[in-house]
Amino acid sequence: MKERSNEEELKIISELGEWIMKDTCFIELVFENIESIIIPRERIRKLECTPLKERTNVRTYDTNYVRLQIDYQDQMELNYIPENYEYPLGMFIDNPTSNRVQDRPNILGRILNYRDIVSLYYMDDKEEEIYGVYVPWSEAEEDFNEYMKVSIEPSYIDILIQNNFD
User: Fold this and answer.
1) pTM for this one?
2) pLDDT in tens, 18-69
């Protein structure tokens, strides 16, 4: 697989940024156990993924750095207790439990409960993938990512996933 030049990489990053503003309507966060939540673009305060390295899949990349900030309206949106639900978030067709933040804002709390985001998918208005980005993952633990840090700020969740060793 060919490494991109800095100029090519910046162009892709710029294009992804433009899609956030134009074509992307949702960001799907996929977790280590294959659960996922779908966040509407309006809730995304900031999203940076750099540098991007192309994978063998079309429109799928690896990155060493992700900064994601997601708006929430009140603290109740951060209270997610998975044991209270019969079905997992996402994972299979016809799951009666919605994994969309606009339907169940409290599922944002899933991000706080576990440090295990594996990938982000930029999605269009039909919730079809435009681009996929795999985040850096620490192999030290199977279930959680030591590279992932999450903090609660007034009105937003701040997520930083960074591999300082590459």
Assistant:
1) 0.84
2) 555 567 899 999 999 888 999 999 999 999 888 778 887 778 888 899 999 9
In sign, the C-alpha dihedral spanning 114, 118, 122, 123 is: negative
CB atoms within 10 A of CB 112: 15
Q: How many CB atoms lie within 10 A of CB 31?
A: 24
| Structural domain includes residue 99 | yes
Q: Which domain holds residue 36?
A: 6-162
- Answer whether 69's CB lies under 8 Å from 120's CB: no
The C-alpha atoms of residue 110 and residue 96 are separated, in whole angstroms, by 18
In a domain, 1, yes or no: no
Q: Which two tokens stand for residue 84?
A: 């209270």
**Could you give the C-alpha distances from 129 to 6, 46, 55, 90, 152, in angstroms and in order?**
25, 19, 15, 15, 28
Where does 32-163 have alpha helices with state H? 109-113
Count of domains observed in the chain: 1
Structure tokens at 59: 């429109």
